[in-house]
């Protein structure tokens, strides 16, 4: 028996469709509120199906503290003083670092010394506010904030420029129960190629959320596909969903056949490439991936374009 094509009919526009459209998304809790609100602003209904758990732990906070405290009993300066840059590739990394700073007795940087460049992607940089800088150093002039024009880890490496054998601290996730996506290893490699000495810091954990995370996707797909789109914001989320589907005896091709009208959206080209490498085809990729507005707008634009073609 031949299966029907993925899109046998024009995809309806949710904003003008009579029924309420449902947008599934696999984002972890720390990002869920932002994306859910943007989905609702479009008049759609969010269906949160987190496939990974992202959070700091006592162990990861302790790992961060290692760099906030003096190197030894006879040292007065923290290990962070040895670094010229601090590069965050995620919002969670900043939050975890800030949490460790909050329980540190004194700022890790002395008022006098070389400038430390702190880099973050897109809207994540909003967390590098006056409070964060104050926790880092009493003298804000020692801190330089860098936000790359292209909100990807490779864009961040480009923006940092030539390292000239200087050290850069990279707070990244420790991946548990899933294969580590190539994003972080490639980022560290890119920094090395530019002459930096990258030091990996496992600042938080990314863990598979378990089989239960696919329940809503499985149930909705059995209801003649009770959702119109699914949004992925990281490669780990894609792998987490695939692993959960397997627990139910399903794979991605089965979900696609059950949901021929479903649009699969990715937050930026990095997530899209990761999804494709796992066998999950992507229909919509946000070109503005500095925030989740981009992927939601791209999804809206996709439906409007198809509606115009139909008319």
UniProtKB/TrEMBL annotation:
Report the Gene3D superfamilies cross-referenced here.
3.40.50.10090
Q: Which InterPro entries match?
A: 4pyrrol_syn_uPrphyn_synt_sf, 4pyrrol_synth_uPrphyn_synth
Q: Name one Pfam family in it.
A: HEM4
Give the superkingdom in one word: Eukaryota
Residue ranges of the Tetrapyrrole biosynthesis uroporphyrinogen III synthase domain?
34-289
Query: Under which name does UniProt file this protein?
Result: Tetrapyrrole biosynthesis uroporphyrinogen III synthase domain-containing protein
SUPFAM superfamilies recorded:
HemD-like (SSF69618)
